[in-house]
Amino acid sequence: MVRNPEFNDGLKGWSVFGFGQIAERTSDTGNRFLATDRRSLSHQSMSQKVYLQRGMLYTFSAWLQVDQGNTTVTAIFETAKDGLVPVGAVEARSGCWSMLKGGLTAKSSGPAEFFFEVSSTSLFSSLHTV
Q: Which residues form a coiled coil (predicted)?
């Protein structure tokens, strides 16, 4: 469902939800990841537009990190019919990759936007979103 989950094609398929800026980066060990900065609100992060089919089960996992302190990161699908649907959360820590797993069974068919809400506005990174 998620396009370009390992960021092998740069930012292809990814966009900014709200304001802010996303950038592809590479770790010292060669792993690609996306970073979101210049954020002023919790929902400003990387996102993808997807299409959900009613009754289908969708699951995902993502490795996440913040640059300062500890903060809750929540994965959310937004649809016109169902509004904001939280589908998983994790306590992310500075300097440590944390895994977020989640899923949902779609209540309706239609376009949706998948994004992350981060309770602080620190630099937020995502590695290998599947």
A: none
